[in-house]
User: Fold this.
Amino acid sequence: MSDDRSKGIILIGAPGSGKGTQAKKLKDQLGYAHISTGDLLRAAVKEGTALGQKAKGFMDAGQLVPDDLVIDLLEEALQTPEAKAGFMLDGFPRTMPQADALDAVVTIDKVIDLQVPFELIEERVTGRRMSPSGHVYHIEYNPPKVDERCDVTGEALYQRSDDTPEKVRERLAKFDSETRPVIAHYQQKGVVVAVDGVGDPEEVFTRIMAVM
Ligand code: AMP
Assistant:
């Protein structure tokens, strides 16, 4: 295997485990390119691109977008100079075909397995509110200063269409059936580190930095 393959880490965990929040902190601290397939897909839906039109129905239903679409998107995102210098994946790979496609083109140094019990997830996800600018709030744990407005941009916050209790349950079931085998796959390679994702985001970040 040649040494010139790009290298990076994966943040893996159930929906609502805090992958996105921690990825942003890690990006600030380590300068890795942050690649979130969920963010890329939401941007494609918003722009109404061909990919966005194909992906929207799956996303609204809380289902996974077909592998071929997501793999194409990811391979494109890995081409930037920033990603080639070191990347951090958030929300990819979620299935074994995605992991195989990834392993074929890059080297994964570490997989951070962010663990949060399913009982805590529903409350986290259904209380989540998003700003169009990408800032994320929670109605109880991280409320905006002005009701329903982004602290940074003042834009109206919205709730993701897949952040309802029924969709969350569907997404957790998919995590069990499709994504747990991905964690097992990287465990066999000896690169997985489990991190307790319960608690204040700063505390969780300290735990992640301790294993980096
Ligand atoms: P996320 O923001 O990571 O929770 O992703 C939101 C939604 O985008 C998911 O529920 C899926 O519908 C879709 N999605 C994101 N990443 C992937 C992926 N790697 N494979 C399949 N679907 C994905």
Summary: Residues 7-127+163-211 form a domain with the Rossmann fold fold (CATH 3.40.50.300).
